[in-house]
Amino acid sequence: MGTKRLILRRFRASDAPTLSEYRSDPAVARYQSWEAPFELDRAETAVRNFAASSPDQPGWFQYAIEHAAERVLIGDVAVRLHENHKQAEIGFTVATAYQKMGFATEAVSAVLDRLFRLQGLHRVMGECDARNTASAALMERLGFTREGLLRQQTFIKGEWTDDLLFGILAPEWLARDRD
């Protein structure tokens, strides 16, 4: 799967060092569930698990985001397909050097196209730390509706954080073609 600038693909063993590098960046890890540094052995385990999962089966699947021209891993998009095959949760991470260039928007948009057009999902939701204004803005740009605020929902990295909830329905995503 791809876009003009990106290739979205399954992770490979050779991706582990780059995954370790960008997930070790404190700015990238700030609002994520992992701690920096993200050691190479942990990245190797993660990549093996990512490669063993399926985008068509319930559970988590991680798409590697590869910069097409540079042939380098720049981030990932995670999808957790529900047991009913009609709903999913989405998350995304992009290396600092590739942020604010539209790559995350492009990658998440391509994944949403797959989920709604090819897999026939009804709904996709996203959740982010309320302080993560960049992620919230990305979801809003893509047409997600802010559906809620969970106050002090998550205890992570030594503090209670508020979570924002977003959702988008298939008719909303598919209507974008008519705009």
From TrEMBL:
<protein>
    <submittedName>
        <fullName>Protein N-acetyltransferase, RimJ/RimL family</fullName>
    </submittedName>
</protein>
<dbReference type="InterPro" id="IPR051531">
    <property type="entry name" value="N-acetyltransferase"/>
</dbReference>
<dbReference type="InterPro" id="IPR000182">
    <property type="entry name" value="GNAT_dom"/>
</dbReference>
<dbReference type="InterPro" id="IPR016181">
    <property type="entry name" value="Acyl_CoA_acyltransferase"/>
</dbReference>
<dbReference type="GO" id="GO:0016747">
    <property type="term" value="F:acyltransferase activity, transferring groups other than amino-acyl groups"/>
</dbReference>
<dbReference type="Pfam" id="PF13302">
    <property type="entry name" value="Acetyltransf_3"/>
</dbReference>
<keyword id="KW-0808">Transferase</keyword>
<feature type="domain" description="N-acetyltransferase">
    <location>
        <begin position="6"/>
        <end position="171"/>
    </location>
</feature>
